[in-house]
Write a structure and sequence with these properties.
The chain has a 7-stranded parallel sheet with strand order 3-2-1-4-5-6-11, with helices on both faces. It has a two-stranded parallel sheet with strand order 7-10. The protein is globular, with a radius of gyration of 20 Å. By secondary structure, it is of the alpha/beta class. The chain has one domain: Rossmann fold. The longest helix is centred in the N-terminal third of the chain and has 22 residues, at 99-120. The chain contains 10 helices and 13 strands. Helix 1 crosses helix 7, helix 2 (67-75) packs parallel to helix 4 (99-120) and helix 8 (258-272) crosses helix 10. Helix content is 39%, strand content 17%. Residues 10-11, 13-17, 37-40, 42-43, 63-65, 85-89, 104, 108, 132-134, 163, 186, 188-189, 195 line the site of nicotinamide-adenine-dinucleotide.
Length: 330
């Protein structure tokens, strides 16, 4: 059994955070998990219902933008591990209003790093600050090539720029203050209980309600989709086996054009609803492209595969079936 540890998870009421908290509670009964989340519009506490019965789990509502609050939190808790997921996460929102993205993703991350540094000082044995980030920090790819751990940063939306800034701050704390950090950049996640603003839940919801299915541009923009529980498994492996100061790229080996994702969702959802095959295709509506829309993301995940024996376990088909079933309440 792993040694007892006190873990602070930020953003644990969000999409990925909730799956991570559930995995930690299930796999590590010796860990005390404190989930700190502001409960913004993007959170979903119902995805954490099963955690309430765990005596080693606590939820705390709080704001990482508030440094005084963090100082007080850290003065009354001795955390061994921080896993930082709290963020403003929706690119379209960042285009409409970038300010909350800088305040939460940049200032919030700095607050958390500083509160952690002040608490740990030189007592960094067995301590870890794990920052969860995105492949969007690398910008866009053309028709071929993949991002690696060596790819240069080239963020092109206010969201990805704010995540890039937070990544740089995390590494700066490692080099400047010796803070023990780990960082991972992951491709697009999907799965149950994701907010309806994101592509896959939005399309499922609109198929159900026979509403138009918006597809940006010509639909050829390509993302590498990963089932959320596969991401969380990779985080678990990196957390326990990663080398301090290192970055790991996580991806699904599952590149899909947006239009193909929509067509697949139409097939699965129509079939689960008992509707004639393909009847929702007429709802597809190509809309003006997102400004600065990155054309393609793809991840070379050789490092996590070789170092930790990880690989994406969930096929796109079965992951989508589980996801659609969740939204249809099946
Ligand atoms: N969703 C993806 O495809 C994806 C891929 C790679 C990396 N990531 C990263 O993973 C992390 C989690 O992503 P997600 O999709 O679960 O996001 P999400 O939007 O579903 O959840 C974010 C959570 O952070 C909380 N939060 C926001 N501002 C806060 C603040 N000021 N203080 C405390 N809590 C706050 C929200 O209430 C929410 O519960 C983010 O850092 C994101 O950049 C996401």
């Amino acid at each position: 059994m792993k040694k007892s540890k006190s873990i602070l998870v930020t953003g644990g009421a969000g999409f990925i955070g909730a799956f991570l908290v559930k995995r930690l509670l299930k796999n590590y009964p010796n860990y005390q998990v404190l989930n700190l989340d502001l409960l913004t519009y993007a959170s979903n506490l119902s995805n954490l219902k099963s955690c309430e019965s765990f005596s080693n789990y606590k939820f705390l509502k709080g704001d990482i933008r508030d440094f005084k609050f963090l100082e007080e939190l850290f003065s009354s808790n001795n955390f061994d591990i921080i896993i930082h997921l709290a963020a403003e996460s929706h690119v379209d929102n960042s285009i409409k209003n970038p300010f909350p993205f800088v305040l939460t993703n940049v200032q919030g991350t700095l607050n958390l790093l500083e509160a952690t540094r002040l608490q740990w000082g030189n007592n960094i044995e067995d301590k870890l600050f794990y920052h969860v980030s995105t492949d969007e920090v690398f910008g866009t790819l053309g028709v071929d090539g993949k991002f690696t751990e060596m790819s240069p940063y080239d963020p092109r939306s206010p969201y990805s720029a704010s995540k890039a800034a937070s990544d740089h701050l995390v590494r700066a704390y490692y080099h400047t203050y010796n803070l023990p950090i780990l960082l991972s950049n992951c491709s697009n996640n999907y799965g149950p209980a994701q907010h309806f603003e994101k592509l896959i839940p939005l399309i499922i919801q609109n198929i159900v309600n026979k509403k138009s299915l918006p597809v940006y541009g010509d639909g050829k923009n390509t993302r590498d989709w990963l089932y959320v529980e596969d991401h969380v498994e990779a985080i678990d492996l990196i957390l326990h086996n990663g080398k301090i100061g290192k970055t790991y790229l996580i991806g699904g080996d599952n590149e899909k054009r947006n239009i193909d994702v929509v067509l697949k969702l139409i097939k699965i959802t129509d079939s689960m609803l008992g509707r004639p095959e393909g009847c929702s295709k007429k709802l597809i509506n190509f809309v003006s492209d997102r400004p600065g829309h990155d054309y393609r993301y793809a991840i070379d995940n050789t490092k996590v595969k070789q170092e930790f024996g990880w690989k994406p376990e969930t096929s796109f088909e079965s992951g989508l079936v589980k996801t659609v079933a969740y939204y249809l309440n099946l």
